[in-house]
Amino acid sequence: MSYHPDFSLLEAYAQGSIDAIHGVSVATHLEMCPHCRQQTRQLEEHCGDALLNLEMTSSQASAAPTADAHWQQMLEQIFASDAPARPKLTRAKAPVVSVNGRQIAVPRALKRFVSADAKWRSYGGKVFSLALHSDDNTHMNLMYISAGVSIPQHTHLGTESTLVLHGGFKDEDDHYDAGDFILRDGSVHHSPQTAQDQDCLCLTVLTEPMLFTRGVARLFNMFGKGLYP
């Protein structure tokens, strides 16, 4: 695992300012990546400390002495009381998707978006797409690419985040494995390819359609401004 969400994206996630769809994508990566989980936990703790300090400063500026005494009394009662028994937590089973005759387990963060009877869209029996959620122009999909397949070269009218869930692929820049989180924009033209012996399942989030830049696939650009998976 070599590619991760950048710091600003993790910070937005920790602060709760990230949009819902990209939040799901980041949460899915965090489930797969201990390094980013630790970094996000530290960011959340920092945000919590900052909020607590702000609340304490505000309270001290406005509270009367009697209110301070009442607050101290309440804290003493809380610490003196017995802590409630913590419920036993059960680890949810990872959901499984069925595509192209394969059964592939995906992170639990996607559990509410996938179902056993999901209807995949097929592109020539080689590439399969499953729409998970859409919000305005932002689309979140699962994308399955069979072994030995090359996606026509394309760019993006907006941004595309790709999280590899299973297998791997390569493009003109590098090779990507399970857990890698890649962010692309209109400055990048690439053609993802799978190895002859390895398929790939990805979680993709697009803010605008794909725009094909070479070959017959450019005909898809005639339909509107491009193509969503």
Structural description of this entry:
The protein has 229 residues and is an alpha+beta fold. The chain has two domains: 7-80, Arc Repressor Mutant, subunit A; 96-222, Sandwich (Jelly Rolls), CATH 2.60.120.10. Helices cover 29% and strands 26% of the residues. It has helices spanning 7-15, 20-32, 34-62, 65-80; strands at 96-99, 102-105, 121-123, 127-135, 138-145, 154-156, 160-170, 175-177, 181-184, 200-206, 210-212. Strands 3, 4, 5, 7, 8, 9 and 10 form a seven-stranded antiparallel beta sheet that branches. A hairpin with a 3-residue loop joins strand 3 (121-123) and strand 4. Helix 1 crosses helix 3. The longest helix has 29 residues, at 34-62. It is elongated and about 75 Å long. It starts with 6 loop residues before the first helix and ends in a 17-residue tail after the last strand. 26% of the residues are buried.
